[in-house]
Amino acid sequence: MGEVAALATAFDSEFAKSLSALPDLNVCPVHEHDAHLNHHRQAIRFSETISYYASKLPPFASAQRILTFGNRLVQRGEYKLAKDSCYEYVKSLNLHLNAAQRLDDETRLSYHVQAWYGVTSCQAALLHQKDTHIKQPDTLQDLVLCMKEFKDALALVLPAEGLYWLTLNGTVHIYQLAKKLLVAGFVRQILPFLVFCVKALESHVVFSSSKHLPWRTQLYVTLCNAYIDSEAYEAAKIVVKEGNAKIEAVIKLQKLDPVPVKPAVEAAFRTARAMLSALQLRLEVMSAPPPSEEPAKATPGKAAPGKAAKPPAKGVAVPEAAVPAITVPASIEQFQPLLEAVSLTPLARLTAILEALEVPSLRVLRHQPPPAMLMDFFKLVIVEAFPKVAAIGAALKKRKADLEAWEKSQQAPAPEAQAEGEEAVAEAAPSAAEKAEGEAAQETLVPSEPPALEDIPEAHELPLLLHKAMLCLAYNFEMGPQFEELLEVAQLRLEMGPGMPGTTVQASPARHYKADDPSMPGFSAATTILAGMHKLEKQPGPESVAEVSRMLSSCYPEAAIAIPDMLGDAALLLYMSARPLLDGVFCAKDKEAGLVTDVLRCLHACWEAIDFDDAVLRVSSSIKLALLLENRDELYEARNVLQTSRLIISRLRCDAALAQRHADDEHLRWISASRNQPSDSTAKLLEGMGDTEQELACLHTNVLAALYRLELSIGCLEQMNKATSKQGKMVEEIKSREKQSSIFGPRTMHDKQLDTKRIQEAARTTSNPPLKERELLSMVGKNPYERALLLMQMAPFQPEVHQQAVMMQEAAELLGKAQSAEDFQFVGAQPNLGQRTATPLQPKILQRTPTSVVLTHFPLLLKSTKKAVKYAVYAKSFGAGIALGLNKTACEYPGTGAMTPLDESVTVEGLHVNDTYVFAVAAYDDAGQLIGGLGTSTKEVIAALPLPLYMCWSHLVLLASKMGLWSLAKRGSGLLFPHFIETSADRPLWEANPMDAQRLNRPHLEVAAKPLLRTFVQAVYSYTDGVTEQEAAAEKGFAPSAITSVGKEFRTAYLEEQVARLKSTKRLLIAIKVSALLKDEMLIQESSGRAYHNDHTSLTHAILPFSGVGPVKERDAYPRRLSVRLPPAGPPASPQVSALLKDEMLMHEGSVSALLKDEMLIQEGSVSALLKDEMLIQEGSVRAYHLLGPLLALKCKSPLLHKCLSSMHVSLQGVHNLVQDSMVGQEHNRATAAQLGSTLVYHLVDMSTLAGELAAAAYFGKLELELLKAYDTRFDVPERTTLAALGEEAASSQEALLLQPQVNEYGSLVTWACVSTRSNALKSLTASVGPCNKRWKLRRPGPESTHPSGRCRLKRLGRRAPHAGGRGGGAGRPLRFRGGDRERMVL
Length: 1387
What we know:
- This protein is 56% helix and 4% strand.
- It has 46 helices and 13 strands.
- α43 packs across α44 (1226-1250).
- 42% of the residues are buried.
- The model is unreliable at 293-323, 439-445, 499-511, 1031-1053, 1095-1172 and 1277-1387 (pLDDT under 50).
């Protein structure tokens, strides 16, 4: 025995030492690699200590001691260590089945059940730590299994009456776990276990005493509420009925005791009865049919149904009723017995009624008509509770008025009044008696202390919790007057408080509310939120949005704890109300930028406080907030926002991956972050990836790029501040030295020059922050995705162009390596399983997070005769030391080296973020012997979440284009563009339009995330701009000098250049289509503009003015008309162009109608319905305009351009005239887009007429463009550029077809006729547009208007016709690019 005692003492001592050496788990989080590994090593030593002494000591000396040790570990939050080291060991002894020395049966059973409880409770705690809100299906399943374990343990101990305390503990464990599931909304899963707890207590004699009655009642209430939440009202009624019966049985049993019942016991009985009666009342109210209008009799002592309530108590000042009188409905009469049962006190009665009005499906901030019975009961609440509200309000108003009067009287008199008083005293000094009287009167009028709050009668006591419930119900039921009165009193209670600060006067704690009332934070937050929402409903507008934003910012910390659901709903309502403002602000110069920044800051704080689960909305708002803050030079706050967003999006991406556990493609989806893959076969492997996962990954990329840019900007700022500080210190040293010139002698001119040079050198800084760059490079480690993004953001900060190119080149190489690594992982995840191997295959990785990897094994088809029963995982850092082997190094991380049953996954934790690791598995038989050896190791796996590579390439193309690194931009576009744009082999120009060789890859488009598509469109824009100016003709690109380098007689554009320009235009048109899918109008407008400028060169040799009307000197009261002309065709510059014109014209005739059907009529409605955001569309239009401009400037436009222009017209048709005046320059941009639309209409009508497609010309002549309303006076907005100025601008550029306030009155009749050039016969041509039917006449060719083609031209009566060939218009006259002759198509 002495040896056992010595070992037990040593065990206690070693446990105390190990526990003191064990680091606190709170300071060793998973993302802290070194601290987490240190904790893991100490935990291993701790487990070894327990295992050693447990094996030496007998069960009677070790079991209870180890259980105590486990409880101490649980108190420190070491659930895993307590479970694995303590509880699991005692449970594995199976003491309830095996006899042990000096332990009786009951003790052995007790130890076993305690260990079972400990294992299960630790397992539940670990599950709840990983998934607090129980979002993952696996978490729910495992928690239900934990409840089943509790149930089995409880069933085992239930027959032992001496262990009743373990039965009680088991019900407590089940109840605590059930409450967590009940809060998460999983009601049906907990019902069987709650029923079991209730029945277990009912079957035990010990729990029939009054001592355990409150706990039994609590279980009845919880079970009944669970049935109510699942709408099983009949089952809930049975529970209430049985509960009442059991309580009555306990009461009868208590009466058999000759000892008189104590008052506390009687109070417990009454409370239990009242609680069940309140439940029964709630059940009857929720399951009652709609009330019928029947007269009811009055109940003695209560307000008769249909009659007004009694007046308030005498002597209480109550203001006149500010709300309509409410009577008690007659339908309440049937519930009078239950109301009497719950009326232990007036407040208990009011509490029961308010609980009966609680409906789980009703949300406070969502107005919806309540059931009629609930409305009747709320009227009862108004009748019984509003006298209390009125009394409290009257007392607080009186106190407020008294305080204002007292504060006013305490103010010092003004100097003038004091001087007048002194003169009066000097003139007539009062007698001593009069002076005493005055002082007494002054003391009476001006008290030394503020007035006290009058004592409110006990009958009008109203706790804050009930006041809050009434306030929420009045708002939800849309009881406007009652809500406003409750809100006013609530605000008074918050304003006045239990007592005024700084005074000795306090309100009666039981009458108003206690200073330490725990319901105060929830009451204050609910009052603030409901007041803001009420104002937002009554007075919608920017002012209300700003005030609600301030309210939520002031109360969100308390609301997140007390009323998180209401705070979340309020934040969503604020977001929806402010959505027009949020969409109308893109930079700090916008009109409402300050308000939008405050709103986004408020939303960010609220969603962070409640952990809002809509990751896309949270991160998108955070990115916009950070960009606005960066634009306002608030860099540090912007960085904090993005750092929070990075953590959020990383965690939510991990949660989204965990939600897909046990999917068939689980071992493939961790490899890449996008379904857009270089090969369709690889993309097919990821077809189960959801849209949310892809969008989160793309947003993750944007967050990281913006964060790195901010970090570098802050590094430059800090570097500059250091330099400024250093410079200041040097200046101070020089001044100090000059003051000591009498000691050290005067300073020479050379010394002063050296000091000046030193000061200048100290103030000099580099454009890049080297310290911050090294810090960030160390942080990203071996992560190729983040390192590439960081290098992209570092490049613009470099001082030299070659340094920028080197960094961008390194970023491109890293992206290429990342793609190769993903391809290798895809190959390794699909091994050949048809052959037996000597060692296991490489592990099957299932999940990957920045700090852990979840993996299992592929089928173990080994050549050995032994059967594999278990396996173990081994891991090490890639590139560190020797290769992976069966040694201690490979078992360093948590989860490695432990034998695990087959088909169970292993989680390796404690990995260093952005480091690479290799993994392997080894198989073991049932005896723990190794089979074969260590298996094949994986390729290096990065401990980080993957990013979409095409998204990264888009960022590279954007930055390279902006920086002028065209070789890198071309490399990136060569990988990015072919993925979304299919390109077929070129066909001869007389067989097909060069633009037809490119088309949108719709399968790739359908699986792409919206952020990726948006970045792709922007990359197309930027790349097209740069290539237009930079690519050489040898690369079949553009030659901007081709038009200006020809002779004076003819200007001929190279055919290759024109074809390349058409292909680039087609890329922009594809970008416009993608913008349409993104619902982004402004991007489409920009695309159209760029395509137009790209095409402003035709396949002929002359230049044609693009406007059909002359200059407009002043606003015309009549609508403008399309100037329909038949432009002359000069001699072709080459046989190739001549053949092209001939064949293409023949080919194009008859195809315009089909073009309209395919490109316009089908998309006309769909595009208009899809587009909402105008900025992206407008940007695309302007860019396309710039791209097509040179091709359209030549004399005879090729019909090849018709397809481009018609597609642009379709895009602009979807743009509505929603001018957002809050954005800087938006008025001018919209006017520019309107000018662009009018120019497109002119060219389309002109070209359709030339091709003989009258239906197409008539369609375009309808002028159905909403953009043209940009000049309508009905859309005049203050502080916008005046319409007159816009009109002058449009007129000077000769691009406006319409400049009228009556745009919507334009007619739609346009009849065209063509002139036959073969027979030279004149057919009719009529143009009738709008209410003002001016006439046009067709003049025969004369000497002054003869063209080489012999065609006729139109001339407007009374007005000079615009020239067809520019100034002079002759075919042999040289044309010049001059501003006076023709406006260049550059907007």
